[in-house]
């Protein structure tokens, strides 16, 4: 029986990786890594340029560098590069920090934390994690301009910053031998509900944006073309 379960889990994991959601997750991870690499390369270039300009200015205006000065410059470059690499590393997301994360960054940080929990979750949950990741990616643009004091912001924060992490942590607190007696199914059902709810929130926020766009369009029409009903 254990062998059959392992085969089934491996098959489900493979399906999750090759699903559209799984490919989308891989694409998002690659894009984030590329962005971090580009930012790190830019910082390293600027740090190198600043050190070299400083060294040239010192050698030209104050005193020749000499062997000791060249070694000092080389050491400064190494320390600067190491500092840039350490500074550019993305810190691991922690569930305890999610309620305090800025609203605009919350979807990405929640997805990063949820993705890190994947090995400790049952295979049927993996595809739902990918689907939630897709939902979070779609939600993020609507949160960029949302006021933290809005009721919708509090609802979003409560769902993906508190209730979703607590659902996963509650499952992880159950001893492994007891999880197949119900918690596996409860976790999957809970993740499915979260995925549906994030989709509903995204639609509501997008609908609000469309209403604002329509109102602004009407305002511009009245202002620059005149009220068509005035005639």
TrEMBL record:
What keywords are assigned to this protein? Membrane, Transmembrane, Transmembrane helix
Keyword Transmembrane: yes or no? yes
- Quote the protein name from its UniProt record: 5-bromo-4-chloroindolyl phosphate hydrolysis protein
Question: What species is given as this protein's source?
Answer: Sphingomonas changnyeongensis
Report the transmembrane regions from the record. 37-59, 65-87
Q: Which domain of life is it from?
A: Bacteria
